[in-house]
Amino acid sequence: MILPISKVLNHGKVRYRVNFGKRLNGGGHYRRKYFKSIREAQKYIKEVLGQQNDAGVQFLNLFPGKRLELINLYRLIESKGISLETAQDIFSRIESTKDGAEQLSGEGLKVAAAVKEFLNNRRAFNLEKETIREYQSQLGRFAEKFGDQELAAIQKAELQAWIEAMAVGERTKRNYVTTLRTFFGYWVDEEVILKNPADRVPKPKIKRKRPEILTLEQISPFIELICREEPKLVAPMAFSLFGGIRTKEVFKLLWSDVDLVKGLITVPEQAAKGNRERSFKISKQLRAWLEFCPNRTGQVNKFKSLDEYWEVRKKCYRKAGIEKLPRNAFRKCFASFDWSIDGDTKRLSAQLGNSPEVAQRFYIAAVDESEGRKFKQIVPVQKEGSNCLGNDQPKKQ
After folding, report:
1. Does residue 98 lie within any of the structural domains?
2. 125 and 268 co-located in one domain
3. Secondary structure (3-state) at 41
């Protein structure tokens, strides 16, 4: 028998999925389970098939009348749209004498308990701390509103009304819809509820703005201030502003992923968004910045957390006279100035880790070629009495 195992990406992690069809599952529904290793998946299949064989022997040992009774009972349960496993679980919980025992049927599970169980499940998959934190924040707010309601009773209309009433931006509302779809989808997969009420909640449309970038006049003093006051920012800044690498990818990048001899940077699977490894050539400008960086060992990032990085970066751009840094400013600056020189979207998008369409729509702003060439000339110069751009520093009073 061919083992029903598939290697898939589940929430950004490589997992091994076991698919049991209606016959193998015995509940009239398809069933999926995810495992961290293929050995765990194979062990699970062996256990299930062993149980199935044992059950078959027990069934044949029953008197014909009992067999017919079981078949009729199964048909009744199937007509209600639930699996044998769920029916057994419901019966066990009804029979339980423990105080406060909740049924895990769709009719008994409260939203607050469902949120708690979902979060525990997400933590078991070792998701990124920021992802868990977003789930906690959004579902925590959801539980505050609907916590005492039964999970199966939640309707599409009340979810939509709740999201529309939020005093947040359209992008944040879209994120809430995505989270709710994932949350309710989990309980559909677990066969606790039959339908996902969030599937039909529309995502708010976002008015797409032209990519916003920093001007050359803003970039130079910003970098000078970083070099002078926050040297830990130099490496993350260089990889993003002059290499187009995502901040979260930089935080997982090691200096061993940088080959200055061959002139290549590899963003490995465990660091790349979507686990899609990519490599690209190091430009002369990026090489100059990488060679300028001190302590090129271990992790590229030397900050304790992303929050610390954001806070230090914010302090620097505010001090440099920039009121607000545009979203993904470093990557957009790199993409825009780089593309202005040769217009090679295919090469650029491969380096960014996006499709050409996404790069063109979200990252490339209209920049004159002359500005692009000036941007390429921004390199560090190490000499006494000068900052990292080689410009004379103001004399101390």
Report:
1. no
2. no
3. helix
Beta bridge partners of 130: none
Q: Could you tell me if 93 and 104 are in contact, meaning their C-beta atoms sit under 8 angstroms apart?
A: yes
Q: Which residues of 13-52 are buried (b: 16+ CB within 10 A; e: fewer)?
A: eebbbbebeeebbbbbbebebbbeeeeebeebbeebeeee
Average pLDDT over residues 153-180: 93
- The CATH number of the domain holding residue 155 is 1.10.150
What pLDDT is recorded for position 339? Answer: 96
- Contact between 152 and 106 under an 8 Å Cβ cutoff? The reply is yes
Place of tokens 């880790």: 353
d(CA 84, CA 102): 19
Residue 385 placed within a domain = no
Tokens representing 78 are 């199937």
Cα 206 to chain centroid distance, Å, stands at 20
pTM above 0.85, yes or no: no
The sheet with strand 278-281 has its strands ordered as 258-259, 264-267, 278-281
Rg (CA), the chain: 28
Amino acid at position 105, single letter: S
Q: For 299, which DSSP code?
A: B
Instruction: Indicate the average pLDDT of the chain.
Output: 83
Which residue in this structure is represented by tokens 């029916």?
87
Which residue segment(s) compose the domain that 51 sits in?
A: 5-84
Within the chain, how many helices (H) and strands (E) appear?
Answer: 17, 6
Q: Pairing relation of β-strands 278-281 and 31-35?
A: unpaired
